[in-house]
Amino acid sequence: MLSVLIPVYNYDIRLLVNSLHEQLISADIVFEIICMDDGSQDDIGRTNSNVASLSHTTYHVASNNVGRVAVRQRLAEQASFDWLLFLDADVVPKSETFIKDYLVFINAEYDAVYGGFAYKKERPDDDLVLRWTYGKSKEQVDAAIRNKKPYKITISANFLIKKTLFKQINSEITYKGYGYDNYFGSLLKTKKVLIVHINNEVFHLGLEPNASYLKKVEQSVDTLLALDNKGLINSTENSLIVVYRTLKQWKLNLLLSWIFKRFKNRFHTNLLGKTPSMFGLQLYKLSYLSYHEIKEKGRN
């Protein structure tokens, strides 16, 4: 028995839900699909509500936008079954055996299973290329590599987890914002949760415009910094924080802060252009992190 849970915000989910429903029927299992709209525009909400005509499928609309963490908690609380499959609204299964490939693990020893992320080979429009390039280089990672450091790439857009475990861990994240997958992964590691990564990817279709994605990058760095300063991700495997801590020991964060102030506009020119550098993006994150931490400490 499986509960498929989809948080929705301003994205057409009909392709995703119809694909999942067809596979779930084919798998011949007891299931439910619960979609929860977190304050989408009215026209998108009306379009998406059509999925409720499918069997064992419901579409709920939140009265106001509460954020990803809270919506996931509400979905988990509404779920009827012991296993939850979380999928973001802007994805679609890569394989026609997507559901069956997850079902194999329901009776296995693991508490959570991460399927992975994939991107279409075709290059998108220039205004969407930053998200696509980052995704292909950093998120589209084979399961054999992900399993070497299982708590590092824990992308919440596509994973299977026991309901009791999810509700317990997710309830510890009491913040609203962007970039909490790393915190969730750190909590999984702290609690020694047994997880496994498999090659059961979804295609990420909802590519943000370059400028919008760069803002999200900054928000995720802000989140990492806040969590690190509060000692909440001491066991994280996130590369950015691990590298930053090392550089900070050698006082190189001062140099990075200067680099951010001196070259911020040049970073933006490259990252918002046609051929964004992933090395440049990582350097931008490190220098942004250094600058803002030093700036924050200066206020205290």
Topology pattern, helix = H, strand = E: EHEHEHEEHEEHHEHHEEHHHH
Radius of gyration: 20 Å
| Share of β-strand residues | 5-15%
Report the oligomer: single chain
Query: Residue share in helices?
Result: 40-55%
- Profile the largest sheet: 7 strands, mixed
Low-pLDDT residue intervals, each spanning 5 or more residues: none
Taking the alpha carbons of the first and last residues, their distance comes to 52 Å
Let me know the average pLDDT: 94
Number of helices: 12
Number of strands: 10
Query: Which class of secondary structure composition applies to the elements?
Result: alpha/beta
Which geometry do the CA atoms define? globular
Account of the 3D structure:
There is one protein chain. This protein has a seven-stranded mixed beta sheet, sandwiched between helices. The N and C termini lie far apart (52 Å). It is built from twelve helices and ten strands. The chain has helices spanning 14-27, 42-48, 68-78, 98-103, 129-139, 143-146, 163-170, 181-190, 210-229, 239-249, 252-271, 278-299, and strands at residues 2-8, 31-37, 57-61, 83-87, 91-93, 112-114, 117-118, 158-162, 195-197, 202-204. α3 (68-78) runs antiparallel to α7. 48% of the residues lie in helices and 14% in strands. With 300 residues, the chain is of the alpha/beta class.
